[in-house]
Amino acid sequence: MNHFISPADVTDLNQLVTSGIVTKRNPFADQELGKNKTIGLLFFNSSLRTRLSTQKAAQNLGMNVIILNVSQDSWGLEMEEGEPGNPIIMNGAKAEHVKEAAAVIGQYCDVIGVRSFAKLQDRDKDYSELVFEQFRKYAGVPIVNLESATRHPLQSLADCITIEEFKVKARPKVVLTWLPHFKALPQAVANSFCEWMGGMDVELVVTHPVGYDLAPEFLGSAEVIYDQEKALEGADFVYGKNWSSYTNYGQVLVNDPAWMMTEEKMDRTDNGKFMHCLPVRRNVKVTDGVLDGPRSLVIEQAANREWAAQAVLKEILLGIQ
Ligand code: CP
User: Fold this and answer.
1) pLDDT tens, 182-232?
2) What separation in Å is there between the alpha carbon of 317 and the centre of ligand 1?
3) What ranges make up the beta strands (E) of the chain?
4) Are 281 and 179 in contact (CB under 8 A)?
5) Pocket mutation for ligand 1, best pick of 278, 297, 300, 306 (most atoms within 8 Å of C-beta)
6) CB-ligand 1 contact for 155 (6 Å cutoff)
7) What ligand 1 atom has the least distance to the C-alpha of 45?
């Protein structure tokens, strides 16, 4: 594996899931692999799980870790290139161009992880993934997606590992349900979850209010059911997430508390497990009863972020030895 930006960078999804599960059983088996190698983790946005799990995974592999909160600790980065005859004139707030910054960080680091969320103002701009394209172009080293405008593949890999570990049927029914939230959130986790479930042997159903349809290229062949209670029937896994509208880009069209996940709704499933990437707002998106009850997998799921990151970094390190 060279980069880990989207599933297109992964040769064998099932092998990567297995690698994560094997790594969990013996986390320090590859401590020599990352010796004298450095990973730089660049955060344009906040993080708890991604930051700690990726740092821990890199350390398990013997790597050195440098963390930079880009917006707070370093110069603001200009991402735009300009055009022939219409160059970018950097007389605004951003003091450094990604062309130099990425190339310089690539001199210090053997691998670079980047987190940069959607700004939710211009759909074409967000979906062009400019930040990742620029780092891929100019860093000269492998790039790992720590959540981009449209994807969160380390989260999705951890989700795949969790479903593989907890499934009790060969082909479980997995329901991705929209949950209410007052603030506009990106589609990245939902997009990525659909994309990765497309590579797993599951029946994927997506349920959300009208107006919240995901981009078709991410939804794939998943069935969409606008009636949440009907969608939940017989589910083995319920994956909760809020996202803002893709069609009315970045807007909160409805914030109906009737979409919150409750124990009564979980009773419609086939003893289904509840998953959420976290952070989650209690009693806004999901009740205490679900989160604190025996059907919640949110802590196990977060724990698997470490093994997902380690499986990915191992593949990358094998490619740069
Ligand atoms: N799920 C997830 O990415 O968590 P953080 O935003 O805390 O990293």
Assistant:
1) 999 999 999 999 999 999 999 999 999 999 999 999 999 999 999 999 999
2) 24
3) 38-43, 64-69, 77-78, 82-83, 86-87, 96-97, 111-115, 143-145, 173-178, 203-207, 223-224, 237-241, 273-275
4) no
5) 278
6) yes
7) 6
> What does pTM read for this prediction?
0.97
The pair phi, psi for residue 204, each rounded to 5°, is: -105, 125
Domain spanning 156-302: CATH superfamily: Aspartate/ornithine carbamoyltransferase (3.40.50.1370)
Digit-coded pLDDT (tens) for 157-171? 999 999 999 999 999
Determine the Cα–Cα distance for residues 284 and 263; give it in Å rounded to an integer: 14
Question: What's the CA-to-centroid distance between 88 and ligand 1, angstroms?
Answer: 33
Residues in the chain: 321
Whether 164 contacts 201, CB under 8 Å? no
- Domain formed by 7-151+304-320, architecture: 3-Layer(aba) Sandwich (3.40)
289 band by pLDDT with thresholds 50, 70 and 90: very high
